[in-house]
From TrEMBL:
GO terms for cellular component: cytoplasm. It comes from Gossypium raimondii (Peruvian cotton). Coiled coil: none annotated. This is GST C-terminal domain-containing protein. It holds the Pfam family GST_N_2. InterPro entries: Glutathione-S-Trfase_C-like (IPR010987), Glutathione-S-Trfase_C_sf (IPR036282), Glutathione_S-Trfase (IPR040079), Glutathione_S-Trfase_N (IPR004045), GST_Omega-like_C (IPR047047), GST_Omega/GSH (IPR016639), Thioredoxin-like_sf (IPR036249). PROSITE patterns: GST_CTER (PS50405). One of its GO terms (molecular function) is glutathione transferase activity. Residues 210-379 form the GST C-terminal domain.
Amino acid sequence: MHCISLPSSHLLLHSPAKTTLKLACHVSPRMFFNDSATNNNSGSTNGFSLIKNVSKLLWGASLPPGILISTVRTAWTSTWQIMMSQLAPSDPSGAYTRPFSKFRLNPTAATTKLHLYVGLPCPWAHRTLIVRALKGLEEAVPVSVAGHGLDGSWEFKDVPDKDNDILVPTMDGVNRCRNLKEVYRLRKGGYDGRATVPMLWDVEKKEVVCNESYDIIEFFNSGLNELAQHPGLDLSPVELKEEIEEWNGVIYPNVNNGVYRCGFAQSQEAYDVAVSGLFSTLDRIDDHLGSSRYLCGDRLTLADICLFTTLIRFDLVYNVLFKCTKKKLLEYTNLHAYMRDIYQIPKVATTCNFLEIMDGYYRMLFPLNPGSIRPVMPSVCEHEFLSRPSKRESMSSVGKRVQHVL
């Protein structure tokens, strides 16, 4: 489970698609004229004005002729399908099929000199940041935070005005690469596949240790206790492993990947199936949390971390961009309070950069949002609202234990 960057072939699709579709400026200016609003290049502006004047001359204030609308719609649909087939592979029914992780963890092969690569918009990478923080592995496993590049790749950048309260994009702290694809290529034998986050890197061997998020969080939880500041915190205790696996078996296909199956569906049938599974599962979890502070009772576990990183993005992104519109998370009394409860655990809020999350989805997933317009952040997703008391600590004593361990 990981976040992908758009393949390099999208560079070939991006420019021609926009050039072709600029002929349809009066069909949907907000959809097709992203450049005119954000680019100060006079040539771009003049080109927009020329097309505008020509269109007025041809059909005045009325809509373009039906044949033009039909032609542009067909061209856009075809281009969208090409882009989506690479961004989000699907099965014959149009249902999104997530690619498998290439590098799985072999703990015995890894040294203790490790480096973590992440991207802040990615929920899979977010899991690793939270477990790393809760276990106190920040010094033992340094992190480089990639930002989103204009071509959809993960790029490293220097952020001059750093906010000490939240993580922000950084330069590559160990390999000094410009982007994540370059890091992957440094491994023995090279690599030209998808450059995904999270990725755990062996500094001494210059090798990819793992790019499967669940392998990494299990390793952080129990495999580096000799380096952790909080080795006593166990997010996957033996007595709860079966229950954790059962919850993961429900949450991953229907919620974690379920929101992507909604957003990346390429047919109405595939979308209907995905959205039904998503909300029936959220209903079930909300009901369960009415009598249980966490998924497995009093103990915060890896299953909670995996659910949290999807929930924190739900009203911010998935409800709108991924068409998960049946309900907002705010409408789920128990789920929303549960999300706030986890958000308020020390160090968790620091891993949540909401503007980076929104930019990573709204501005970079071009096939889903051609105008690249980032909507205003919902007030219920702001730190002040999420910091309101959840009142869930009365359901168990786990809150006191977490505070004590951290």
